[in-house]
Amino acid sequence: MVESLIVAARRNVRDEVAGLIEGLGFEVVPVTSLSAHEIADAYERWGRCASTAGLNFGDCFAYQVARAYGCRLLYVGEDFARTDVEGVLPGR
């Protein structure tokens, strides 16, 4: 959500994107001590210096939530395709 708002602000559509996010009713999941360790583990396993997946810091938050909650990710590119998380789109 944060990354979406940052990109939207750069493109001068932050208010519109914020309204869309609110309207969709996303659940904001807090970072706990356990999830912080899982995010660090994800970076150690799939991060830019450790894997061809090359996940960045923010990607590791999405990865951890997907794994912890059994969610599939909607993404473009090949970074998440090189991990063990399932994508939303066919073949991902």
UniProtKB/TrEMBL annotation:
Q: Which SUPFAM superfamilies does this chain map to?
A: PIN domain-like (SSF88723)
Gene3D superfamilies for the chain: 5'-nuclease (3.40.50.1010)
Every copy of the PIN domain together lies at 3-84
Domain of life where this protein originates: Bacteria
Pfam families under this entry? PIN
**Matching CDD domains:** PIN_MtVapC28-VapC30-like
**What protein name does the entry list?**
Ribonuclease VapC
Q: Which organism is it from?
A: Rhodopseudomonas thermotolerans
